UniProtKB/TrEMBL annotation:
Keywords tagged on the record: Calcium, Glycolysis, Isopeptide bond, Magnesium, Metal-binding, Mitochondrion, Nucleus, Oxidoreductase, Thiamine pyrophosphate, Transit peptide, Ubl conjugation
Taxonomic placement: Eukaryota, Metazoa, Chordata, Craniata, Vertebrata
Cellular localization per UniProt: Mitochondrion; Nucleus
InterPro entries assigned to the protein according to its UniProt record, in alphabetical order: 2-oxogl_dehyd_N, 2oxoglutarate_DH_E1, DH_E1, KGD_C_sf, ODO-1/KGD_C, THDP-binding, Transketolase-like_Pyr-bd
Organism encoding this protein: Engystomops pustulosus
Designated name of the protein: 2-oxoglutarate dehydrogenase complex component E1
Known EC number: 1.2.4.2
One GO location term (cellular component): mitochondrion
Catalysed reaction, written as an equation: N(6)-[(R)-lipoyl]-L-lysyl-[protein] + 2-oxoglutarate + H(+) = N(6)-[(R)-S(8)-succinyldihydrolipoyl]-L-lysyl-[protein] + CO2
Chief localization: mitochondrion
Family named by the database record: Belongs to the alpha-ketoglutarate dehydrogenase family.
Transmembrane segments: none
Cofactor: Mg(2+); thiamine diphosphate
UniProt record, GO biological process: glycolytic process; tricarboxylic acid cycle
C-alpha cells in the first residue's frame, strides 16, 4: 500500500486550475498564430483543432507526439505574446505526425481532454501538499510515542490510503500513468515525467521519513527552490565510507564522555546530553562545512544541557580542566565568585581537522536564564564582524543552541529573531539548533506551548525549519550541512530541530518517572544512537566490531589520562574560562597595566572644532528641517561663547574619542534624534527619502567610525545585544539608552545576570554604558524613576568597611567595584565620565542616571574651562558659594545628587540662606566617594548633615548613602533625610500632588530647626 495525501482545493486552488486552462489555450493560440504566419503552405493550414489534439496528446504522454511538438510544448511560455514561442520544425514533420496521431485514434474528445488537464493539476497539487504538509506525518520521534507537532490525528485533508486518491479525482488505476513534473519540484532528477506511483514514493522519501521540512511559507521563490533541490533530488543525501566512520567516531566521543562523567561523578549534576548525543557531530558538521566555505570564527551560545560535552568535543577544551571542576577540594578562585561548571564559557583557537584551516571558537558564558544569552551572542558576533570588516558575515558566524521548551516560551527568543535583519543588528544569519527533548523539566509540551512545534517562532522572519529525527545520524549531519550552506548562501537564519529525548531527568539527580512514566518506560528500552549506528555500519561492512571497540577504548583512555592529570590541579583558576579575552589590554596575569587614570580634559581648539561640526551640515545640497536649523544655530552660538549644554557635551565626548581611534556605538529606542529631541546625531534630508547625514562621522580625516542606531522596541534583546557588542573589544565605547529610565526593568535579566555579576562569575570585564533618563518632573510613575535603588543595592562595596585612602584610592576603588553609578548635574561632568570610561586601565559597566529637564535647563551649562586639558571628572562637586568661605558659620550641609540640586539652589536663594546652608553634590554615588565626603563633613564640623532627594524615602539613594555616611563618621553624627515619604509607586500621576510634594520637601530642607533636639 502506498501512502499519499493531498490538500483540499480551496478557492485559491480553483483559481489555479482556471489559470492552467487559460494557459493551455494561450499555448495553443500561440502555436496557431505562429503557424498562420509561416511561409510554408502546409504550416498555414494548421488550425486550432489540430494543435489542440497535439497538445492534449502530449499532456497524456510526450511520446505520443513528434519530438518537434514535444520541444515546442516544453518551451512554450503561457505568458509569451503570440509568435514568440519556440519555433516548430518542418511542415512535413508535423504533417506526418498528424497523420500518425489521427490513424492511431488519439484525437480526444473535449471531456477527455478536460480530465487529462485536471489529472495533471491534481498531481501538481499532490506534490505541493507534500512540500507544505509532509512534515506533519514525518517519522521524527525516536521514541515513536509522540508527534513532534503535538497532534496524532491526521487531518481530513491529509490522505494516507490509496482508496482516498479520489480526493484529487485520481484512482488506483492512475498509479502507473505517467505525468509531467512541474518546475517546482526536483524529485525527477534528470527525468521530466514519472508515474504517479513513483512520484508518491519519491515524495514520501523526501518529506515523510526522518526529515520534516517547513519552508513553503518563505515568500522567496529562489530560496524555496534551493531547499527543494537540496532535499528532493534523488540520491543527494550520500556519504562516503570515510565520512560515515568519522561520524561514528564523533558519536563515540560524545557518548563516552557522558558515560565517563556518569561513572566518576554519579551523584553530581552535570546536565548531560544523553538522548541527544548526535548534537556533538551536528555542531561539528556545521563548523566543518562553514570552515570549508571560508568561515574563521564561530561564536556559540547555549543552555547548560550538554555544555560540558560541547566544551570537550567541539571547543576542544582540555579535559583535565573540565574534570578538575568536579573536585570538591579545589580552592576558590583568586578573583570573583566563579560559577557552576555548566555555565562557564571558553575561547579557543585551533586547526579544524576536516579542512586544515584555522578556526576560532568562543562559547559565551551564561546563567540558568536559558535564552538570555541569545542576544548577547548576537551582539558579540556583530562586533567581531564589524571589527574585521566582515560586512557579509563570511568570516564570523553565530550558532545558538536552544531547548525546546525555552525556545517556545522565552520572549527574548522572539526579540532576538526580530533583530536578525535590522541593518545595525544583523549578523547575516544565525544557525539555531534546538535540542528538542519533548519535555521542559517536568512539563509536557502539550502544556508548555500553544504552537504545533517549539520552533514556530522562527517563522516570523521566514527562517526555514528542518525537523530531524536525532536517532538518524546521517539525516542529522546532512540537515546541518544544508543549514550551513543556507546561511552562507542567503545570509539568513535557519533552524535545525533535533527531535530527541532526555535519558535522565532534568538533572541526573531528578526522577522523571514521577511525571512522565510512559515516556521514561520507553526511554529505558531505547537503544543508544551510537549502538544503532555502529550496528548499521558493521552490517554494511564499513567498520568492523573490533574497530568500533578500539575507538571506544581509545577515547576512554584519553579520559582516564586526563582524569589523572586533573588531580594535580591545586587551584581552580577561572581565567581559564574566559570567553572574550582582550589580548594586549591586560598584563599576562590578567591585571591592569597600571592603577592610574590620566586627566580626561581635551584642548580648547578640539572642543571648538567639534562644536563647529556639531552645528553644521557637512554635506552639500542637504536640506534640513527649519526647526533643526535653529537648534544648530544655537549650538554654534554656544560654541562661540565656550559653553556646552548636555547634548553638546556628549557630542564632544564622543567626537574626542573618535579622534583617538575609539569606536563609539550608541543604541536604543529613538537615540538618533533623542527621546527628548535634544541629540539630532542623524540629520534627514527634507526632500530626499532616506538620505541622511551623520556629522559625527565628518569630524576628522582618520577618525574611528561612529555608529548611532535606533533599535527595535525591545529592551531585553537590545541591551543583551549591546552587552555582547561591548564584550568583543575594550577599545570601544558602547552605550545603550533607555527611552525612559524605568524601561530598563524589561531588561532586568541582562542587568542582574550579566552586567552586575558578570565579572565575579566569569571574569568578564565589560565597559557598557547604560543611559537611563531619570527625574521627578510630574510625568507620572512610568516616566520618572530609573530605579537607582536597585543598582545601588547590587553594588558590591561594603557599607561597614572604612577604607584606606591610598594615593591611587580613586582608581583602585573603581577596580574593586562591580559597576559605577553616577548622576551628573553638569554637562561638563557628563563629558568627563564618558571619557574616563575609556581612559581607565580596566573596564567596568557605567550606570548613568541621565537628565530630562536638565537637557535644556538654563543653569545646566558648562564652560570650556571645565573640560580643557588637565581637567577631570569630579566625583563630588563641593559648595563653592558664600557658605564655603565661612564654614564655621554654616548650620546645615545638604548632600544631594542630580537635578534636585538646581531646585535646592533656587530655594536657598529665595530664602536668602546662602551663607548658612551649603549644598554638596555627589556625582559618583557608587562606589561611594569616602575620601571627598570626609573632607566636606570635616570642613563643616558644626553643621547638621542632611541627605535630600526627590525620590521617595524607600527608593532613590538614601538607603545606600546613609550607612556609608555613618561608617565615615564613626556613628558620631547623624545624616538626616529630607525628601518624599515612602510610597509604593515611584511617582504620583497627579500634577498638583507632585508640586505639593516638591514644596513640602524643599521647605523641610531649609527649615533649620526641624532636626534640633532629635537623636539618632
Amino acid at each position: 500500500m502506498i501512502r499519499t495525501f493531498a490538500v483540499k482545493l480551496k478557492p485559491c486552488c480553483i483559481s489555479f486550475l482556471a489559470a492552467q486552462k487559460v494557459a493551455s489555450k494561450t499555448i495553443i493560440q500561440s502555436a496557431c498564430v505562429q503557424s498562420s504566419g509561416a511561409k510554408e503552405p502546409f504550416l498555414s493550414g494548421i488550425n486550432s483543432s489540430y494543435v489542440e489534439e497535439m497538445y492534449y496528446a502530449w499532456l497524456e504522454d510526450p511520446k505520443n507526439v513528434h519530438k518537434s511538438w514535444d520541444t515546442f510544448f516544453r518551451n512554450a511560455d503561457p505568458g509569451a505574446s503570440p509568435g514568440e514561442a519556440h519555433q516548430i520544425t518542418t511542415a512535413a514533420d508535423m504533417q506526418n505526425k498528424a497523420l500518425l496521431i489521427r490513424s492511431q485514434g488519439l484525437a480526444m474528445a473535449p471531456a477527455k481532454a478536460e480530465k487529462l488537464v485536471e489529472d495533471h493539476l491534481a498531481v501538481q497539487s499532490l506534490i505541493r501538499a507534500y512540500q507544505i504538509r509532509g512534515h506533519h506525518v514525518a517519522q521524527l520521534d525516536p521514541l515513536g510515542i509522540l508527534d513532534a507537532d503535538l497532534d496524532s490525528f491526521v487531518p481530513s485533508d491529509l490522505i494516507t490510503t490509496l482508496d482516498k486518491l479520489g480526493f484529487y479525482g485520481l484512482h488506483e488505476g492512475d498509479l502507473d500513468k505517467v505525468f509531467r513534473l512541474p518546475t517546482t519540484t526536483y524529485i525527477g532528477g534528470s527525468e521530466t515525467s514519472l508515474s504517479l506511483r513513483e512520484i508518491i514514493r519519491r515524495l514520501e522519501n523526501s518529506y515523510c521519513q526522518h526529515i520534516g521540512l517547513e519552508f513553503m511559507f518563505i515568500n522567496d521563490v529562489e530560496q524555496c527552490q534551493w531547499i527543494r533541490q537540496k532535499f528532493e533530488t534523488p540520491g543527494i543525501m550520500k556519504f562516503t565510507n570515510e565520512e560515515k566512520r568519522t561520524l561514528l567516531a564523533r558519536l563515540v566521543r560524545s557518548t563516552r564522555f557522558e558515560d565517563f562523567l556518569a561513572r566518576k561523578w554519579s551523584s553530581e549534576k552535570r546536565f548531560g546530553l544523553e538522548g541527544c548525543e548526535v548534537m556533538i557531530p551536528a555542531l561539528k558538521a556545521i563548523i566543518d562545512k562553514s570552515s570549508e566555505m571560508g568561515l574563521e570564527y564561530v561564536i556559540l551560545g547555549m543552555p547548560h544541557r550538554g555544555r560540558l560535552n560541547v566544551l570537550a568535543n567541539v571547543i576542544r577544551k582540555d579535559l583535565e580542566q573540565i574534570f578538575c571542576q568536579f573536585d570538591p577540594k579545589l580552592e576558590a578562585s583568586d578573583e570573583g565568585s566563579g560559577d557552576v561548571k555548566y555555565h562557564l564559557g571558553m575561547y579557543h583557537e585551533r586547526i579544524n581537522r576536516a579542512t586544515n584551516k584555522q578556526i576560532t571558537l568562543s562559547l559565551v558564558a551564561n546563567p540558568s536564564h536559558l535564552e538570555a544569552v541569545d542576544p548577547v551572542v548576537q551582539g558579540k558576533t556583530k562586533a567581531e564582524q564589524f571589527y574585521r570588516g566582515d560586512a557579509e558575515g563570511k568570516k564570523v558566524m553565530s550558532i545558538l543552541v536552544h531547548g525546546d521548551a525555552a525556545f517556545a516560551g522565552q520572549g527574548v527568543v522572539y526579540e532576538t529573531f526580530h533583530l536578525s535583519d535590522l541593518p545595525s543588528y544583523t549578523t547575516n544569519g544565525t544557525i539555531h539548533v534546538v535540542v528538542n527533548n519533548q519535555i521542559g523539566f517536568t512539563t509536557d509540551p502539550r502544556m508548555a506551548r500553544s504552537s504545533p512545534y517549539p520552533t514556530d517562532v522562527a517563522r516570523v522572519v521566514n527562517a526555514p525549519i528542518f525537523h530531524v529525527n536525532a536517532d538518524d545520524p546521517e539525516a542529522v549531519i546532512y540537515v546541518c550541512s544544508v543549514a550551513a550552506e543556507w546561511r552562507n548562501t542567503f545570509n539568513k537564519d535557519v533552524v535545525v530541530d533535533l527531535v530527541c529525548y532526555r535519558r535522565s531527568g532534568h538533572n541526573e539527580m531528578d526522577e522523571p518517572m514521577f511525571t512522565q512514566p510512559l515516556m521514561y518506560k520507553q526511554i529505558h528500552k531505547q537503544v543508544p544512537v551510537v549502538k544503532k549506528y555502529a550496528d548499521k555500519l558493521i552490517s554494511e561492512g564499513i567498520v568492523s566490531l573490533q574497530e568500533f571497540e578500539e575507538e571506544i577504548a581509545k577515547y576512554d583512555k584519553i579520559c582516564e589520562e586526563s582524569y589523572t592529570q586533573s588531580k594535580d590541579k591545586k587551584i581552580l583558576n577561572i581565567k581559564h574560562w574566559l570567553d572574550s579575552p582582550w589580548p594586549g589590554f591586560f598584563t599576562l596575569e590578567g591585571e591592569p597595566k597600571s592603577m592610574t587614570c590620566p586627566p580626561t580634559g581635551i584642548p580648547e581648539d578640539m572642543l571648538s572644532h567639534i562644536g563647529n561640526i556639531a552645528s553644521s551640515v557637512p554635506v552639500e545640497n542637504f536640506k534640513i528641517h527649519s526647526g533643526l536649523s535653529r537648534i544648530l544655530k544655537g549650538r554654534l552660538e554656544m560654541t562661540k561663547n565656550c559653553l556646552v549644554d548636555w547634548a553638546l557635551a556628549e557630542y564632544m565626548a564622543f567626537g574626542s574619542l573618535l579622534k583617538e581611534g575609539i569606536h563609539v556605538r550608541l543604541s536604543g529606542q529613538d537615540v538618533e534624534r533623542g527621546t527628548f529631541s535634544h541629540r539630532h546625531h542623524v540629520l534627514h534630508d527634507q526632500d530626499v527619502d532616506r538620505r541622511t547625514c551623520v556629522p559625527m562621522n565628518h569630524l576628522w580625516p582618520d577618525q574611528a567610525p561612529y555608529t548611532v542606531c535606533n533599535s527595535s522596541l525591545s529592551e531585553y534583546g537590545v541591551l543583551g545585544f549591546e552587552l555582547g557588542f561591548a564584550m568583543a573589544s575594550p577599545n570601544a565605547l558602547v552605550l545603550w539608552e533607555a527611552q525612559f529610565g524605568d524601561f530598563h526593568n524589561t531588561a532586568q535579566c541582562i542587568i542582574d545576570q550579566f552586567i552586575s555579576s558578570g565579572q565575579a562569575k566569569w571574569v568578564r570585564h565589560n565597559g557598557i554604558v547604560l543611559l537611563l533618563p531619570h527625574g521627578m518632573e510630574g510625568m507620572g510613575p512610568e516616566h520618572s524613576s530609573a530605579r537607582p535603588e536597585r543598582f545601588l543595592q547590587m553594588s558590591n562595596d561594603d557599607c561597614d568597611a572604612y577604607p584606606e585612602f591610598t594615593p591611587d584610592y580613586e582608581v583602585t576603588q573603581l577596580y574593586d567595584c562591580n559597576w559605577i553609578v553616577v548622576n551628573c548635574s553638569t554637562p561638563g561632568n557628563y563629558f568627563h565620565v564618558l571619557r574616563r570610561q575609556i581612559l581607565l586601565p580596566f573596564r567596568k559597566p557605567l550606570i548613568v542616571f541621565s537628565p530630562k529637564s536638565l537637557l535644556r535647563h538654563p543653569e545646566a551649562k558648562s564652560h570650556f574651562e571645565e573640560m580643557k586639558t588637565g581637567t577631570v571628572f569630579r566625583r563630588v562637586i563641593l559648595e563653592s558659594g558664600a557658605a564655603c568661605h565661612n564654614p564655621q558659620n554654616v548650620r546645615r550641609v545638604i548632600f544631594c545628587t542630580g537635578k534636585v540640586y538646581y531646585e535646592l539652589v533656587k530655594e536657598r536663594h529665595q530664602k536668602q540662606l546662602e551663607s548658612q546652608v551649603a549644598i554638596t553634590r555627589l556625582e559618583q554615588i557608587a562606589p561611594f566617594p569616602y575620601d571627598l565626603v570626609k573632607e566636606e563633613v570635616d570642613k563643616y564640623h558644626n553643621a547638621e548633615l542632611v541627605w535630600c532627594q526627590e525620590e521617595h524615602k524607600n527608593m532613590g539613594y538614601y538607603d545606600y548613602i546613609q550607612p556609608r555616611f555613618l561608617t565615615l563618621l564613626n556613628h558620631t553624627r547623624p545624616i538626616w533625610y529630607v525628601g518624599r515619604d515612602p510610597a509604593a509607586a515611584p511617582a504620583t500621576g497627579n500634577k498638583n500632588t507632585h508640586h505639593v510634594e516638591l514644596r513640602r520637601f524643599l521647605d523641610g530642607a531649609f527649615n533649620l530647626q526641624c532636626f534640633e533636639g532629635k537623636t539618632f
